[in-house]
Amino acid sequence: MISDPHEAEFQALIDSDQRIEPRDWMPDGYRRSLIRQIAQHAHSEIIGMQPEGNWITRAPSLRRKAILMAKVQDEAGHGLYLYCAAETLGVDRAELIDLLHQGRQKYSSIFNYPTLTWADVGAIGWLVDGAAITNQIPLCRCSFGPYARAMVRVCKEESFHQRQGFESLYALSHGTPEQHEMAQDAVNRWWWPSVEMLGPPDTESTHSAQSMAWGIKRFSNDELRQRFVDMVAPQAVVLGLTPPDPELRWNEDRGHYDFGEPDFEELRRVVSGDGPCNRQRAAHHLAAHDEGAWVRAAAAAYAAKHPATSAAA
Ligand code: 3HC
Asked: In whole numbers, what is the pLDDT of the chain averaged over residues?
């Protein structure tokens, strides 16, 4: 029995699967958990521009370049919607970016891997965006309204991203033997980090139980991991590429694919800052932020001047 009327009202909204809006009362823990998750998600979208941005100048054709530029710009847009959603919880975007720079907030492990060949761009679209959508579609039903609404648009764009990755890898896989080998090598390197990016196993997930009780998360990390493998395993067959998991096979009894144990020790290492590109990604983000200081100052000066200009007009 909840005695606090605010809490009872909040719980009633959660229980009836309605949305919590920014002006509604919410427990401090709910607010903190959302800020943590949404900020981490926003940082991931922005830092996620780096590995693929690396290939914009070297895309193999004008068509591929145009697609990649649109995709990387989409990621910037996703970051912005997400920072706006976080701001409705009473934090400032600048504050969140400072926390990222101080190492007090995280971004997704997956963006700490290098993009060594053009095929990596296809593998990121197919696998990384595939894992991201698997995680994000249920977030469209997240109990916090602004986050759920941002996710609807993000997911539409992410599904285009996954399709383009699949199509790009398909072209390589069915191209010359060298192109096929390059596609297979990219899948060998991106498969496990993509399976791992869905988070630690349920037994080690610190936030899942509470986040699920609050309707922030709808499925556990392991449930989403299974969904992801079930989606991409048959797609690999169409691509003509072999996932680097000898234990991957359809299990008729379970109605799901069985798969090998991900290397969660590697996930822990990468999350704690010791992945192949953590230092490079963080340094690049910081440098880009510093170099953009004049743009922020100019935008703020324009905004301050603008009302006077409009009043005079
Ligand atoms: N990378 C970095 N940190 C991770 C992680 C990962 N792959 N998986 C888990 N963690 C962190 C958690 O943030 C938490 O650390 P914290 O307490 O310091 O915040 C800790 O590991 C324990 O994990 P939990 O399972 O308890 O954490 P959650 O319940 O928050 O679940 C999550 C993790 C599934 C990533 C969840 O936060 C989530 O759904 N986030 C929103 C989606 C998101 O951020 N996706 C990132 C990729 S975005 C993307 O790929 C963009 C694209 O365009 C491709």
From this structure: 96
